Structure formats: structure tokens, C-alpha cells
Amino acid sequence: MSIDELLLVMPPHVEAGTDVDWDEVHRAWGHPFPTDYKEFVEHYGAGTIENFLAIFEPSLDAAGKPTGSMVDETSAAQEAWEDLEGIPGMDADPDRIVAWGADGNGDMLCWLKTEGGPEEWPVLVYKRVKDAWQVHETGMVEFLLGIFRSEVPSHPFSGSVMWGIPSPRFMTRSRERQIYASGQDPWG
Predict the structure, then answer these.
(1) Contact 167, 9 (CB under 8 A)
(2) pTM for the complete prediction?
């Protein structure tokens, strides 16, 4: 599955998407990011799907160090992994976890960095209501499409807001603020 399929299912709004200096981001983070994620950021940017799932993008401070929601959520995910001792039978240090999203129920969506490189990183989900981790052997875009199509084995979220939505909506935070400022509900 590709970004083209996602673009058909969930078209980005005008002015969505972010230009990122991926070389600088890779240097600052100490690793590259999966191609499907970079394509997602290029077309959509950071924002929210269905007023439920926040998708992060890597930000750097003035000194060129990682900062922002992605850093904060990665730290929280690594702490949760350590507290729960990961997934039984899976030997993975917390520093191999990088968060790319979080939902309104406190679930965290991450990658588990593997030696095979970012194209092989599975999606790792912390399901808050169960206080447990699940691994999904898929990339970010394929995972999202699987959620929208109700095809992901073992419903990964604590809520069902996005499960089986044929035409999900994505909105950047700036677009959401513009609509609120006009006196309308962007999700209504």
C-alpha cells in the first residue's frame, strides 16, 4: 500500500503538508525515518485525523536539537515500554522506540527501530485501556489504511473512532484554528 492510496482515501486540504530538511532531521535524531512517513509529512504535515489521532512531525530547535510533540511522546512511550517491560518474549531496549502519533484516549503509535532499517520498522501501539503493547508488522501508511478499512488484526486503539471510516478527514492544527476563529466547528 502506498501514499497514493491514502491520498485517495483521505485527501489533504489546501496548504497541508510540510517541507522538511530530512538530512538535517536525520542527523539530529541519529537515524533516518521511513519513506512512507516522510511522504505523509510532505502531503499532510502534522495534524489530526478525525479529531482523534494526532500525527507528529519532527521539529528541531534553534540549536538543531529535536524538540516538540514527537520528542515528548517518544519519551513517554519509552518510559511506558520500560515500566511494562515491553512485550513478553521481545528483547528490545526502550531507546528503539520512536513515537509518530497519539490518540485522544492516550494510546501511543510508534515505530520499533530494527536493524533492517526504517523501511522494515513495524508499528508499535501502546493500548492504554489494556496497558499493553502490540506490534503490527506494517508501515505507518499501511497501518492507517488498515484502520480505515477495518483490516488490522486485533483492533489497536482503546476507542473505535477511526475504525472502518471509509473517508477519514485530516486537518492541520493551523487549519483547525482558522476554522474555529471563523466561529465554526471544524469537525462538526
Answers:
(1) yes
(2) 0.94
Strand partners, 59: 67
pLDDT reading at 60 higher than 80: yes
Q: Report the C-alpha gap between 179 and 47 in whole angstroms.
A: 14
Residue 79 clears pLDDT 90, i.e. is over it: yes
Q: Which residues of 125-150 are buried (b: 16+ CB within 10 A; e: fewer)?
A: bbbbeeeebbebebbbbbbbbbbbee
For the chain, the distance separating the N- and C-terminal CA atoms, rounded to the nearest angstrom, is: 30
Q: Give the count of beta carbons closer than 10 Å to the beta carbon of residue 39.
A: 18
Task: List C-alpha distances in Å: 151 to 51, 72, 120, 143, 148.
Answer: 21, 30, 20, 9, 8
Question: Does residue 160 or residue 61 have the better pLDDT?
Answer: 61
Whether the Cβ atoms of residue 54 and residue 102 lie closer than 8 Å to each other: yes
The cell for 84 is 511494562
